[in-house]
Protein backbone atom coordinates (compact mmCIF):
# COMPACT_ATOMS: atom_id res chain seq x y z
CA UNK A 1 0.00 0.00 0.00
CA UNK A 2 1.51 3.36 -0.98
CA UNK A 3 0.67 6.61 0.82
CA UNK A 4 -1.74 8.81 -1.09
CA UNK A 5 0.02 12.02 -2.07
CA UNK A 6 -2.14 15.05 -2.67
CA UNK A 7 -0.03 17.58 -4.62
CA UNK A 8 -0.16 21.18 -3.44
CA UNK A 9 -0.60 24.25 -5.64
CA UNK A 10 2.47 25.88 -7.22
CA UNK A 11 4.14 28.18 -4.71
CA UNK A 12 7.04 30.51 -4.05
CA UNK A 13 8.53 29.87 -0.63
CA UNK A 14 11.07 32.36 0.68
CA UNK A 15 13.24 31.05 3.52
CA UNK A 16 14.74 33.88 5.54
CA UNK A 17 17.75 32.27 7.17
CA UNK A 18 18.02 29.88 4.21
CA UNK A 19 21.72 29.36 4.96
CA UNK A 20 21.18 28.59 8.67
CA UNK A 21 21.21 25.36 10.64
CA UNK A 22 17.46 24.76 10.73
CA UNK A 23 17.06 25.39 7.00
CA UNK A 24 19.95 23.07 6.11
CA UNK A 25 19.04 20.28 8.55
CA UNK A 26 15.26 20.24 8.39
CA UNK A 27 13.48 22.61 6.04
CA UNK A 28 15.38 22.06 2.78
CA UNK A 29 15.82 18.27 3.13
CA UNK A 30 12.12 18.10 4.00
CA UNK A 31 11.18 20.01 0.86
CA UNK A 32 13.39 17.72 -1.20
CA UNK A 33 11.44 14.73 0.13
CA UNK A 34 8.13 16.36 -0.78
CA UNK A 35 9.39 16.86 -4.32
CA UNK A 36 10.68 13.31 -4.53
CA UNK A 37 7.30 12.01 -3.29
CA UNK A 38 5.49 14.01 -5.96
CA UNK A 39 3.72 16.35 -3.54
CA UNK A 40 5.61 19.47 -4.51
CA UNK A 41 4.78 20.65 -8.02
CA UNK A 42 7.78 21.07 -10.36
CA UNK A 43 6.89 24.76 -10.87
CA UNK A 44 7.43 25.49 -7.16
CA UNK A 45 10.33 27.74 -6.25
CA UNK A 46 12.31 28.06 -3.07
CA UNK A 47 14.16 31.28 -2.49
CA UNK A 48 16.86 31.41 0.17
CA UNK A 49 17.36 34.82 1.77
CA UNK A 50 20.15 35.82 4.16
CA UNK A 51 23.03 38.27 4.43
CA UNK A 52 25.72 35.91 3.09
CA UNK A 53 27.01 36.98 -0.29
CA UNK A 54 25.90 34.06 -2.47
CA UNK A 55 24.40 33.73 -5.94
CA UNK A 56 21.86 31.08 -7.00
CA UNK A 57 24.58 28.56 -7.79
CA UNK A 58 26.36 29.18 -4.49
CA UNK A 59 23.12 28.55 -2.64
CA UNK A 60 22.48 25.39 -4.68
CA UNK A 61 25.90 24.06 -3.72
CA UNK A 62 25.24 24.78 -0.06
CA UNK A 63 21.91 22.94 -0.27
CA UNK A 64 23.44 20.03 -2.19
CA UNK A 65 25.92 19.56 0.67
CA UNK A 66 23.13 19.79 3.21
CA UNK A 67 21.10 17.14 1.38
CA UNK A 68 24.03 14.73 1.28
CA UNK A 69 24.75 15.40 4.94
CA UNK A 70 21.26 15.26 6.45
CA UNK A 71 19.15 13.18 4.07
CA UNK A 72 18.92 9.41 4.41
CA UNK A 73 21.01 7.87 1.66
CA UNK A 74 18.15 5.72 0.37
CA UNK A 75 16.08 8.87 -0.20
CA UNK A 76 18.68 10.50 -2.43
CA UNK A 77 18.31 10.12 -6.15
CA UNK A 78 20.84 12.13 -8.14
CA UNK A 79 18.33 13.07 -10.84
CA UNK A 80 15.80 14.26 -8.29
CA UNK A 81 18.50 16.15 -6.41
CA UNK A 82 19.32 18.07 -9.62
CA UNK A 83 15.62 18.78 -10.25
CA UNK A 84 15.28 20.06 -6.69
CA UNK A 85 18.37 22.26 -6.93
CA UNK A 86 16.94 23.74 -10.13
CA UNK A 87 14.01 25.10 -8.09
CA UNK A 88 16.29 27.06 -5.78
CA UNK A 89 17.13 30.76 -5.95
CA UNK A 90 18.89 33.13 -3.60
CA UNK A 91 18.76 36.79 -2.66
CA UNK A 92 21.18 38.59 -0.42
CA UNK A 93 19.14 40.59 2.03
CA UNK A 94 19.63 42.06 5.47
CA UNK A 95 16.49 41.83 7.57
CA UNK A 96 17.28 45.19 9.12
CA UNK A 97 18.64 46.93 6.03
CA UNK A 98 17.36 48.29 2.72
CA UNK A 99 19.37 46.36 0.16
CA UNK A 100 18.05 43.26 -1.56
CA UNK A 101 14.31 43.73 -1.05
CA UNK A 102 13.67 44.98 -4.60
CA UNK A 103 15.51 41.91 -5.94
CA UNK A 104 13.27 39.70 -3.85
CA UNK A 105 10.17 41.46 -5.10
CA UNK A 106 11.24 40.95 -8.72
CA UNK A 107 11.84 37.26 -8.10
CA UNK A 108 8.35 36.61 -6.74
CA UNK A 109 6.00 35.08 -9.25
CA UNK A 110 2.49 36.57 -9.16
CA UNK A 111 -0.58 34.27 -9.18
CA UNK A 112 0.96 31.76 -6.82
CA UNK A 113 0.80 30.89 -3.18
CA UNK A 114 3.43 33.01 -1.44
CA UNK A 115 4.91 31.82 1.83
CA UNK A 116 7.71 33.36 3.89
CA UNK A 117 9.49 31.18 6.42
CA UNK A 118 11.18 33.20 9.18
CA UNK A 119 13.99 30.79 10.10
CA UNK A 120 15.89 33.55 11.87
CA UNK A 121 16.19 34.93 15.40
CA UNK A 122 12.85 36.23 16.75
CA UNK A 123 14.30 39.76 16.99
CA UNK A 124 14.19 39.80 13.17
CA UNK A 125 10.51 38.79 12.85
CA UNK A 126 9.23 42.37 13.15
CA UNK A 127 11.76 43.99 10.76
CA UNK A 128 11.15 41.31 8.10
CA UNK A 129 7.34 41.52 8.44
CA UNK A 130 7.52 45.30 8.08
CA UNK A 131 9.67 45.20 4.95
CA UNK A 132 7.62 42.48 3.30
CA UNK A 133 4.49 44.55 3.69
CA UNK A 134 5.81 48.07 3.17
CA UNK A 135 7.62 47.13 -0.02
CA UNK A 136 4.62 45.34 -1.46
CA UNK A 137 6.30 41.92 -1.50
CA UNK A 138 3.64 40.16 0.57
CA UNK A 139 -0.07 40.70 -0.09
CA UNK A 140 -3.08 39.87 2.09
CA UNK A 141 -3.04 36.24 0.95
CA UNK A 142 0.64 35.60 1.74
CA UNK A 143 1.54 33.33 4.64
CA UNK A 144 4.34 33.76 7.14
CA UNK A 145 5.83 30.93 9.17
CA UNK A 146 7.54 31.73 12.46
CA UNK A 147 9.80 29.48 14.49
CA UNK A 148 10.08 28.93 18.19
CA UNK A 149 10.93 30.40 20.63
CA UNK A 150 7.82 32.54 20.38
CA UNK A 151 8.69 34.89 23.22
CA UNK A 152 10.54 34.45 26.49
CA UNK A 153 7.56 35.36 28.64
CA UNK A 154 4.06 36.76 28.25
CA UNK A 155 5.23 40.31 27.69
CA UNK A 156 7.69 39.44 24.92
CA UNK A 157 5.19 37.06 23.27
CA UNK A 158 2.59 39.85 23.26
CA UNK A 159 5.15 42.22 21.74
CA UNK A 160 5.99 39.68 19.01
CA UNK A 161 2.31 39.07 18.27
CA UNK A 162 1.72 42.81 18.11
CA UNK A 163 4.65 43.41 15.77
CA UNK A 164 3.42 40.71 13.37
CA UNK A 165 -0.20 41.86 13.67
CA UNK A 166 0.77 45.32 12.39
CA UNK A 167 1.44 43.78 9.00
CA UNK A 168 -0.31 40.41 8.82
CA UNK A 169 -3.64 39.12 10.04
CA UNK A 170 -3.92 36.01 12.22
CA UNK A 171 -5.06 33.87 9.27
CA UNK A 172 -1.71 34.54 7.62
CA UNK A 173 0.49 33.64 10.60
CA UNK A 174 1.73 30.05 11.08
CA UNK A 175 3.50 29.56 14.44
CA UNK A 176 5.37 26.29 14.23
CA UNK A 177 5.46 23.74 17.01
CA UNK A 178 6.97 20.79 15.19
CA UNK A 179 5.57 18.35 17.78
CA UNK A 180 2.14 19.01 16.29
CA UNK A 181 3.35 17.85 12.88
CA UNK A 182 4.19 14.35 14.11
CA UNK A 183 2.11 11.55 12.68
CA UNK A 184 1.24 10.08 16.08
CA UNK A 185 0.08 13.41 17.43
CA UNK A 186 -2.47 13.62 14.67
CA UNK A 187 -3.28 9.99 15.23
CA UNK A 188 -4.10 10.86 18.79
CA UNK A 189 -6.95 12.98 17.47
CA UNK A 190 -7.98 10.22 15.03
CA UNK A 191 -8.03 7.65 17.83
CA UNK A 192 -9.97 9.89 20.19
CA UNK A 193 -12.49 11.34 17.80
CA UNK A 194 -12.71 8.70 15.08
CA UNK A 195 -13.57 5.78 17.36
CA UNK A 196 -16.34 5.10 19.83
CA UNK A 197 -14.08 2.90 21.93
CA UNK A 198 -12.02 5.44 23.81
CA UNK A 199 -14.04 8.62 24.18
CA UNK A 200 -16.54 7.28 26.77
CA UNK A 201 -13.57 6.30 28.96
CA UNK A 202 -11.61 9.50 28.35
CA UNK A 203 -12.31 11.24 31.66
CA UNK A 204 -11.53 11.24 35.36
CA UNK A 205 -14.04 8.47 36.03
CA UNK A 206 -11.92 5.95 34.12
CA UNK A 207 -8.49 7.51 33.72
CA UNK A 208 -6.28 7.26 36.80
CA UNK A 209 -3.61 9.62 35.55
CA UNK A 210 -1.68 10.69 32.48
CA UNK A 211 2.08 10.83 31.96
CA UNK A 212 3.87 12.84 29.32
CA UNK A 213 7.60 12.23 29.01
CA UNK A 214 10.01 13.87 26.59
CA UNK A 215 13.48 12.54 27.43
CA UNK A 216 16.71 13.36 25.67
CA UNK A 217 20.13 11.75 25.97
CA UNK A 218 21.99 14.80 24.71
CA UNK A 219 23.15 17.58 26.98
CA UNK A 220 23.02 21.30 26.28
CA UNK A 221 26.60 21.51 24.98
CA UNK A 222 26.89 23.69 21.90
CA UNK A 223 23.98 25.96 22.74
CA UNK A 224 24.64 26.25 26.47
CA UNK A 225 24.56 30.01 26.65
CA UNK A 226 21.17 30.24 24.93
CA UNK A 227 19.80 27.32 26.92
CA UNK A 228 20.86 28.74 30.26
CA UNK A 229 18.73 31.83 29.62
CA UNK A 230 15.78 29.62 28.81
CA UNK A 231 15.62 26.29 30.70
CA UNK A 232 13.38 23.25 30.29
CA UNK A 233 10.20 25.05 31.32
CA UNK A 234 10.49 27.68 28.60
CA UNK A 235 12.22 25.50 26.00
CA UNK A 236 9.99 22.42 26.23
CA UNK A 237 7.04 22.67 28.62
CA UNK A 238 5.51 26.00 27.62
CA UNK A 239 5.22 24.84 24.02
CA UNK A 240 5.67 21.13 23.19
CA UNK A 241 4.47 19.45 26.39
CA UNK A 242 1.54 21.82 26.89
CA UNK A 243 0.47 21.28 23.28
CA UNK A 244 0.47 17.52 23.82
CA UNK A 245 -1.46 17.93 27.05
CA UNK A 246 -4.05 20.05 25.23
CA UNK A 247 -4.64 17.40 22.57
CA UNK A 248 -5.22 14.77 25.24
CA UNK A 249 -7.37 16.89 27.49
CA UNK A 250 -9.44 18.91 25.03
CA UNK A 251 -13.16 18.43 24.39
CA UNK A 252 -14.14 17.09 20.97
CA UNK A 253 -14.12 20.05 18.58
CA UNK A 254 -17.26 20.47 16.51
CA UNK A 255 -15.25 20.15 13.29
CA UNK A 256 -11.69 19.31 12.33
CA UNK A 257 -10.95 22.86 11.36
CA UNK A 258 -8.26 25.23 12.62
CA UNK A 259 -10.31 27.46 14.87
CA UNK A 260 -12.56 24.73 16.23
CA UNK A 261 -9.52 22.69 17.30
CA UNK A 262 -7.59 25.66 18.63
CA UNK A 263 -10.59 27.01 20.58
CA UNK A 264 -10.74 23.70 22.47
CA UNK A 265 -6.99 23.66 23.13
CA UNK A 266 -7.16 27.19 24.47
CA UNK A 267 -9.87 26.19 26.95
CA UNK A 268 -7.56 23.49 28.34
CA UNK A 269 -4.69 25.91 28.90
CA UNK A 270 -7.07 28.28 30.65
CA UNK A 271 -8.30 25.44 32.87
CA UNK A 272 -4.78 24.59 34.11
CA UNK A 273 -4.22 25.29 37.79
CA UNK A 274 -1.00 26.93 38.74
CA UNK A 275 1.61 24.41 39.93
CA UNK A 276 2.15 24.18 43.68
CA UNK A 277 5.82 24.29 44.75
CA UNK A 278 5.45 20.75 46.16
CA UNK A 279 4.31 19.49 42.79
CA UNK A 280 7.39 20.64 40.91
CA UNK A 281 10.89 19.20 40.62
CA UNK A 282 13.75 20.88 38.79
CA UNK A 283 17.14 19.36 38.11
CA UNK A 284 20.59 19.70 36.57
CA UNK A 285 22.75 16.79 35.41
CA UNK A 286 26.07 16.06 37.05
CA UNK A 287 29.28 15.26 35.19
CA UNK A 288 29.31 11.67 33.97
CA UNK A 289 30.36 9.24 31.28
CA UNK A 290 28.68 11.25 28.51
CA UNK A 291 30.35 14.52 29.34
CA UNK A 292 30.65 17.49 31.69
CA UNK A 293 27.97 18.64 34.11
CA UNK A 294 25.21 21.06 33.17
CA UNK A 295 27.00 23.85 35.02
CA UNK A 296 30.18 23.18 33.05
CA UNK A 297 28.26 22.87 29.77
CA UNK A 298 26.72 26.31 30.19
CA UNK A 299 29.91 27.80 31.64
CA UNK A 300 28.07 29.19 34.64
CA UNK A 301 28.88 27.57 38.02
CA UNK A 302 26.09 29.54 39.71
CA UNK A 303 23.34 28.77 37.23
CA UNK A 304 19.92 28.08 38.72
CA UNK A 305 18.40 27.13 35.36
CA UNK A 306 16.81 23.68 35.07
CA UNK A 307 17.56 21.19 32.31
CA UNK A 308 15.12 18.71 33.87
CA UNK A 309 11.63 19.43 35.08
CA UNK A 310 8.84 17.24 36.36
CA UNK A 311 5.47 18.39 37.60
CA UNK A 312 2.02 17.34 38.62
CA UNK A 313 -0.68 19.34 36.89
CA UNK A 314 -4.39 19.65 37.42
CA UNK A 315 -6.85 20.52 34.67
CA UNK A 316 -9.76 22.02 36.54
CA UNK A 317 -12.82 21.14 34.54
CA UNK A 318 -15.61 18.57 34.65
CA UNK A 319 -13.80 16.03 32.53
CA UNK A 320 -10.49 15.99 34.39
CA UNK A 321 -11.08 17.07 37.99
CA UNK A 322 -9.21 14.52 40.13
CA UNK A 323 -7.01 13.09 37.35
CA UNK A 324 -3.44 14.35 37.60
CA UNK A 325 -1.26 14.97 34.56
CA UNK A 326 2.41 14.25 35.25
CA UNK A 327 4.84 15.92 32.87
CA UNK A 328 8.61 15.48 32.72
CA UNK A 329 11.33 16.42 30.32
CA UNK A 330 15.08 16.59 30.62
CA UNK A 331 18.50 16.22 29.11
CA UNK A 332 21.14 13.49 29.53
CA UNK A 333 18.51 11.00 30.61
CA UNK A 334 18.46 7.24 30.23
CA UNK A 335 17.07 7.12 26.69
CA UNK A 336 15.75 9.35 23.95
CA UNK A 337 12.03 8.94 23.96
CA UNK A 338 8.78 10.90 23.80
CA UNK A 339 5.73 9.17 25.14
CA UNK A 340 2.23 9.94 26.32
CA UNK A 341 0.67 7.31 28.58
CA UNK A 342 -3.02 7.25 29.48
CA UNK A 343 -3.17 5.04 32.56
CA UNK A 344 -6.67 3.69 33.20
CA UNK A 345 -8.08 2.85 36.62
CA UNK A 346 -8.27 -0.67 37.98
CA UNK A 347 -11.46 -2.65 37.62
CA UNK A 348 -13.64 -1.65 40.61
CA UNK A 349 -13.59 -5.13 42.07
CA UNK A 350 -11.18 -7.91 41.26
CA UNK A 351 -12.57 -11.44 41.20
CA UNK A 352 -9.02 -12.71 40.79
CA UNK A 353 -6.43 -12.92 43.48
CA UNK A 354 -4.44 -9.86 42.39
CA UNK A 355 -3.67 -6.65 44.24
CA UNK A 356 -5.31 -3.33 43.34
CA UNK A 357 -3.15 -0.59 41.83
CA UNK A 358 -1.83 -2.73 38.97
CA UNK A 359 -3.10 -0.29 36.35
CA UNK A 360 -3.05 -2.93 33.68
CA UNK A 361 -4.71 -0.87 30.96
CA UNK A 362 -2.37 1.73 29.58
CA UNK A 363 -2.66 3.39 26.20
CA UNK A 364 0.79 4.59 25.32
CA UNK A 365 1.46 6.83 22.38
CA UNK A 366 5.09 6.97 21.26
CA UNK A 367 6.17 10.04 19.37
CA UNK A 368 9.78 8.99 19.02
CA UNK A 369 11.51 6.80 18.24
CA UNK A 370 9.31 4.33 16.31
CA UNK A 371 6.10 6.30 16.24
CA UNK A 372 3.19 4.12 17.25
CA UNK A 373 0.65 3.20 19.88
CA UNK A 374 0.36 0.36 22.31
CA UNK A 375 -2.52 -0.71 24.55
CA UNK A 376 -1.79 -3.05 27.40
CA UNK A 377 -4.53 -5.43 28.52
CA UNK A 378 -4.74 -8.16 31.11
CA UNK A 379 -5.15 -11.73 29.92
CA UNK A 380 -4.81 -15.16 31.43
CA UNK A 381 -1.32 -16.50 31.28
CA UNK A 382 -1.49 -19.38 28.82
CA UNK A 383 -1.04 -22.90 30.17
CA UNK A 384 -2.43 -25.16 32.80
CA UNK A 385 -1.12 -23.22 35.82
CA UNK A 386 -4.51 -21.97 37.03
CA UNK A 387 -5.90 -18.46 36.66
CA UNK A 388 -2.74 -16.37 36.59
CA UNK A 389 -2.98 -12.94 34.98
CA UNK A 390 -0.42 -11.18 32.84
CA UNK A 391 -0.44 -7.85 31.01
CA UNK A 392 0.30 -8.00 27.33
CA UNK A 393 0.57 -5.24 24.76
CA UNK A 394 -1.78 -4.86 21.84
CA UNK A 395 0.88 -3.24 19.74
CA UNK A 396 0.26 -0.93 16.84
CA UNK A 397 3.63 0.01 15.55
CA UNK A 398 3.14 1.96 12.35
CA UNK A 399 6.17 0.30 10.85
CA UNK A 400 4.68 -3.17 11.32
CA UNK A 401 1.04 -2.44 10.64
CA UNK A 402 1.45 -0.27 7.60
CA UNK A 403 4.63 -1.68 6.07
CA UNK A 404 6.00 0.44 3.24
CA UNK A 405 3.42 3.14 3.82
CA UNK A 406 4.88 3.76 7.27
CA UNK A 407 8.32 4.47 5.91
CA UNK A 408 6.75 7.18 3.77
CA UNK A 409 5.47 9.09 6.78
CA UNK A 410 6.65 12.65 6.26
CA UNK A 411 8.77 14.25 8.91
CA UNK A 412 6.95 16.88 11.00
CA UNK A 413 8.53 19.81 9.17
CA UNK A 414 7.59 18.45 5.74
CA UNK A 415 3.98 18.01 6.73
CA UNK A 416 3.74 21.41 8.35
CA UNK A 417 5.25 23.24 5.36
CA UNK A 418 2.78 21.52 3.04
CA UNK A 419 -0.02 22.59 5.40
CA UNK A 420 1.20 26.19 5.07
CA UNK A 421 0.98 25.95 1.29
CA UNK A 422 -2.51 24.44 1.57
CA UNK A 423 -3.52 27.22 3.97
CA UNK A 424 -4.41 24.84 6.80
CA UNK A 425 -3.61 26.29 10.23
CA UNK A 426 -4.97 23.41 12.35
CA UNK A 427 -1.54 22.24 13.47
CA UNK A 428 -0.16 25.71 14.17
CA UNK A 429 -0.48 27.70 17.36
CA UNK A 430 -2.78 30.69 17.39
CA UNK A 431 -1.59 33.93 19.00
CA UNK A 432 -4.01 33.69 21.92
CA UNK A 433 -2.94 30.10 22.62
CA UNK A 434 0.71 31.10 22.87
CA UNK A 435 -0.15 34.00 25.15
CA UNK A 436 -2.33 31.79 27.38
CA UNK A 437 0.53 29.29 27.66
CA UNK A 438 2.89 32.05 28.77
CA UNK A 439 0.27 33.45 31.15
CA UNK A 440 0.28 30.04 32.85
CA UNK A 441 4.08 29.61 32.70
CA UNK A 442 5.20 33.04 33.96
CA UNK A 443 3.85 32.84 37.56
CA UNK A 444 5.28 29.34 38.01
CA UNK A 445 8.75 30.58 37.03
CA UNK A 446 8.33 33.77 39.06
CA UNK A 447 7.46 31.69 42.10
CA UNK A 448 10.59 29.51 42.01
CA UNK A 449 12.74 32.54 41.21
CA UNK A 450 11.36 34.42 44.20
CA UNK A 451 12.19 31.45 46.42
CA UNK A 452 15.70 31.18 44.95
CA UNK A 453 14.97 27.53 44.21
CA UNK A 454 18.07 25.44 43.54
CA UNK A 455 17.69 22.58 41.01
CA UNK A 456 18.45 19.08 42.31
CA UNK A 457 21.47 17.28 40.83
CA UNK A 458 20.96 14.02 38.94
CA UNK A 459 23.18 11.40 37.35
CA UNK A 460 23.64 11.25 33.62
CA UNK A 461 21.83 8.27 32.14
CA UNK A 462 19.28 8.22 34.99
CA UNK A 463 15.56 9.08 35.03
CA UNK A 464 16.20 12.46 36.66
CA UNK A 465 16.45 13.52 40.31
CA UNK A 466 15.07 11.22 43.03
CA UNK A 467 12.54 13.90 44.00
CA UNK A 468 10.92 13.36 40.62
CA UNK A 469 10.32 9.71 41.50
CA UNK A 470 8.81 10.81 44.79
CA UNK A 471 6.37 13.06 42.98
CA UNK A 472 4.50 9.93 41.89
CA UNK A 473 5.44 7.60 44.76
CA UNK A 474 3.71 9.79 47.27
CA UNK A 475 0.53 9.47 45.16
CA UNK A 476 0.92 5.67 45.09
CA UNK A 477 1.96 5.70 41.43
CA UNK A 478 5.15 5.32 39.49
CA UNK A 479 6.68 6.73 36.35
CA UNK A 480 6.88 4.51 33.33
CA UNK A 481 10.36 3.39 32.50
CA UNK A 482 12.24 5.73 30.17
CA UNK A 483 13.27 3.37 27.39
CA UNK A 484 14.13 3.58 23.76
P1 LIG B 1 21.39 29.94 12.58
O1 LIG B 1 22.04 28.68 12.17
O2 LIG B 1 22.11 30.90 13.43
O3 LIG B 1 20.88 30.66 11.26
C1 LIG B 1 20.40 31.97 11.26
C2 LIG B 1 20.10 32.37 9.83
O4 LIG B 1 19.65 33.72 9.84
C3 LIG B 1 21.30 32.32 8.91
O5 LIG B 1 20.88 31.86 7.65
C4 LIG B 1 21.75 33.75 8.85
O6 LIG B 1 22.43 33.94 7.65
C5 LIG B 1 20.41 34.47 8.90
N1 LIG B 1 20.49 35.84 9.39
C6 LIG B 1 21.05 36.27 10.55
N2 LIG B 1 20.94 37.60 10.66
C7 LIG B 1 20.28 38.02 9.55
C8 LIG B 1 19.87 39.29 9.07
N3 LIG B 1 20.09 40.41 9.78
N4 LIG B 1 19.21 39.36 7.91
C9 LIG B 1 18.97 38.24 7.18
N5 LIG B 1 19.34 37.00 7.58
C10 LIG B 1 20.00 36.91 8.74
O7 LIG B 1 20.01 29.65 13.36
P2 LIG B 1 19.05 28.37 13.22
O8 LIG B 1 19.51 27.34 14.17
O9 LIG B 1 18.89 28.02 11.80
O10 LIG B 1 17.69 28.93 13.82
C11 LIG B 1 16.83 29.81 13.10
C12 LIG B 1 15.57 30.04 13.95
O11 LIG B 1 14.93 28.79 14.14
C13 LIG B 1 15.85 30.58 15.35
O12 LIG B 1 14.79 31.41 15.74
C14 LIG B 1 15.87 29.32 16.22
O13 LIG B 1 15.51 29.60 17.55
C15 LIG B 1 14.78 28.53 15.53
N6 LIG B 1 14.90 27.09 15.75
C16 LIG B 1 16.02 26.40 15.36
C17 LIG B 1 16.09 25.04 15.54
C18 LIG B 1 17.29 24.26 15.09
O14 LIG B 1 17.27 23.02 15.23
N7 LIG B 1 18.33 24.86 14.55
C19 LIG B 1 15.02 24.34 16.13
C20 LIG B 1 13.88 25.06 16.51
C21 LIG B 1 13.84 26.42 16.30
P3 LIG B 1 23.48 35.13 7.40
O15 LIG B 1 24.43 35.11 8.54
O16 LIG B 1 24.07 34.78 6.09
O17 LIG B 1 22.69 36.38 7.33
TrEMBL record:
- Membrane spanning stretches: none
Superkingdom assignment = Bacteria
Major enzyme class = oxidoreductase
Q: Which Pfam families match?
A: G6PD_C (PF02781), G6PD_N (PF00479)
Keywords tagged on the record: Carbohydrate metabolism, Glucose metabolism, NADP, Oxidoreductase
The GO terms this record gives for MF are: glucose-6-phosphate dehydrogenase activity; NADP binding
Task: Name the active site residues.
Answer: 240 (proton acceptor)
Q: Does the keyword Endoplasmic reticulum apply?
A: no
Q: Which residues bind substrate?
A: 178, 182, 216, 235, 331
Where along the chain is NADP(+) bound?
Answer: 17-24, 51, 148
Kindly list the biological process annotations in GO that this record carries: glucose metabolic process; pentose-phosphate shunt, oxidative branch
Metabolic or biological pathway: Carbohydrate degradation; pentose phosphate pathway; D-ribulose 5-phosphate from D-glucose 6-phosphate (oxidative stage): step 1/3
Q: So what does this thing catalyse?
A: D-glucose 6-phosphate + NADP(+) = 6-phospho-D-glucono-1,5-lactone + NADPH + H(+)
EC numbers on record: 1.1.1.49
Residue ranges constituting the Glucose-6-phosphate dehydrogenase C-terminal domain according to the UniProt record: 189-480
GO cellular component terms, semicolon-separated: cytosol
Q: Where do the Glucose-6-phosphate dehydrogenase NAD-binding domain residues begin and end?
A: 14-187
Q: State the protein's purpose.
A: Catalyzes the oxidation of glucose 6-phosphate to 6-phosphogluconolactone.
By its UniProt entry, which PANTHER family does this protein fall under? GLUCOSE-6-PHOSPHATE 1-DEHYDROGENASE, GLUCOSE-6-PHOSPHATE 1-DEHYDROGENASE G6PD
Which family, according to UniProt?
Belongs to the glucose-6-phosphate dehydrogenase family.
The molecule here is called Glucose-6-phosphate 1-dehydrogenase
Q: Which organism is it from?
A: Tropicimonas isoalkanivorans
Whichever gene encodes this chain, its name is zwf
Amino acid sequence: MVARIIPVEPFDLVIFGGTGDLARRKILPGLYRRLADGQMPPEARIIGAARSDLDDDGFRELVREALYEYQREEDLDSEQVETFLGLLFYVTVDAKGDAGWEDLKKLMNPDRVHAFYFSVAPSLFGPIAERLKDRGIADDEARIVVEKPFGHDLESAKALNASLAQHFNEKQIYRIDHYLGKETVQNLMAVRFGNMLFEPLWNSQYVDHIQITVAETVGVGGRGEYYDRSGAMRDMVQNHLLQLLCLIAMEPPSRYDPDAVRDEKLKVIRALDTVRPDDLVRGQYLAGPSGPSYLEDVGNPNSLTECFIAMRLAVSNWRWAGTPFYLRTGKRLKARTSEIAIVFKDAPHSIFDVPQGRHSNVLSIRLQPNEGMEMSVTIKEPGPGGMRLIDVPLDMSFAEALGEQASDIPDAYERLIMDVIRGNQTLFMRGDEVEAAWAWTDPVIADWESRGHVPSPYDQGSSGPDDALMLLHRDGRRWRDIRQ
